[in-house]
Amino acid sequence: MSAPDRTGAEPGGTGAKAAKAAGATGPAAAGTAAAGKAGGAAPSGADRAAAVRAYRPEMRPGVVIGPAVLRGPRTVHLVKHPVSGATFEIGPKEQFVLSLLDGTRGQDDVVAAYAERFRLRLPDEQWIRLLGLLGTRGLLAGAPDPAPPEPVPAEPNTFWKGTRSTVSDAHRTASRLHRVLSPFLGAWLQVPLVLASLVMIVAVLADPPAFWDGMLDLVTRPLVFVPFAVFLWFSICLHELAHGIAARRYGGVVTEIGLRWRFPTMMMYCTVDNYLFLPGLRAKLVVAAAGAHINLVLLLPFALWWALIDPADPARPPLTGALFIGIVQALSNLVPLPPLDGYRILSHLVGAVGLAPETRTYLMLRRGGGRAAVAAYPARARRVYTSYAVTAVGCVLLAVAGSVTAVVLLITG
After folding, report:
1. Do the Cβ atoms of 297 and 246 come closer than 8 Å?
2. Torsion, CA 338, CA 344, CA 348, CA 352, rounded to 10
3. Least packed by Cβ within 10 Å: which of 115, 270, 273, 331?
């Protein structure tokens, strides 16, 4: 699953520039009105201050503000424009102010609420700067839309690698699939399927010699292995569609469905535009885990056959190997390393964005002896990034150890 990351640093601006940027719906318009009442003369400082206090800004309908997440040493909220799709970051204090902008509160009301919440006074300059930021971003009701973000230059497709969209309207396709499958997506069916998948995993992995011999038997029988490989490829394609359908169930917007190839492999991909803004933690976790879930569910009919077949049947060993490979393929997506689904799940559970790069930055600061920079990280951030560094190293070491063991067993027979 792909989720575009268009977040950027919070921009600033001077008070005068901000007031101008707020546009005809902001304090600048109020200042102009004050000048007109004065017979065309330039408005005085008192007139401008009165106009600013009288202005009752309102957030543009459809603006989405995400929950608090950790990025480096800061706690931020992601804000998404409803038309352009552009996103940017704000701090908790700015988020609190934005939550008050409903068209009924002026500066005095916001300042009073701000002081009650943070025990600090919101300066006039900061208030004007915030309005300027909102106006520039087109987030105030009536403000003009900002220019859409510059698209990332696409790399030309080659024989060796590339991407190609295969659906003209990905969101409509995902919506149709969701409507058809909606009766089967409830907890009444999905929870038993999860439990059945867990039973299958435990049963198959409980006998290592059997699944290892079965895997060797499978890969040495082309007439059995090739059809299974085709099945596995389609399972991976359905993995991506499952992300899109699950996201659509929670209000997600699927922007692209297509094929991505890196010679000699070719896989499907599904891009969810507003994945980080889905409502609640549960929605994000379900969407992230949907791919691995469908991979395991597709193995359940084989697991039933495997459970009922006579252990002495010649079909049992390759069937055991197929189940083992399918389970490993599904569970490997839950490893918490980017760009796997497990990395997204872990990021949501700890409430962080950019977990891997921010961990790298934190470790570089510690290694470089930047005590002042490290001290800027709150205790929670230090725990999160240190724990993830240990987790990532452990996953890599386990993967290497497993690969080496598999090669040794394959050579020694």
Report:
1. no
2. 30
3. 115
Query: Among candidates 69, 248, 85, 285, which has minimal Cα distance to 170?
Result: 248
Please state, in angstroms and rounded to a whole number, the distance separating the CA atoms of residues 385 and 352: 10
Measured from the Cβ of residue 408, the count of other Cβ atoms closer than 10 Å reads 9
What residues pair up with 140 in beta bridges, in sequence order?
Answer: 59
Which three-class secondary structure string do you get for the chain?
A: CECCCCCCCCCCCCHHHHHHHCHHHCHHHHHHHHHHHCCCCCCCHHHHHHHHHHCCCEECCCCEECCCEEECCEEEEEEECCCCCCEEEECHHHHHHHHHCECCCCHHHHHHHHHHHHCCCCCHHHHHHHHHHHHHCCCECCCCCCCCCCCCCCCCCCCCEEEEECCCCHHHHHHHHHHHHHHHCCHHHHHHHHHHHHHHHHHHHCCHHHHHHHHHHHHCCHHHHHHHHHHHHHHHHHHHHHHHHHHHHCCCCEEEEEEEEECCEEEEEEEECCHHHCCHHHHHHHHHHHHHHHHHHHHHHHHHHHHHCCCCCCCHHHHHHHHHHHHHHHHHCCCCCCCCHHHHHHHHHHCECCHHHHHHHHHHHHHCCCHHHHHCCCHHHHHHHHHHHHHHHHHHHHHHHHHHHHHHHHHHC
pLDDT digits (tens, 9 = 90+) for 193-237: 999 999 999 999 999 889 888 998 998 899 999 999 999 999 999
Quote the tokens at residue 305: 């056959």
Q: Is the peptide bond before 339 cis (omega within 30 degrees of 0)?
A: yes
Query: How far is Cα 101 from Cα 22, in angstroms, rounded to an integer?
Result: 14
CB atoms within 10 A of CB 6: 15
pTM of the model: 0.85
| Rounded percentage of the chain residues whose pLDDT exceeds 70 | 88
Tokens for 197? 């998948």
Asked whether the predicted pLDDT for residue 325 surpasses 50, the reply is yes
Please classify residue 346 by burial: count the beta carbons closer than 10 Å to its beta carbon, then call 0-12 exposed, 13-18 middle and 19+ buried.
Answer: buried
Nearest residue to 255 via CA among 1, 26, 34: 1
Which residue is listed with tokens 């058809």?
180
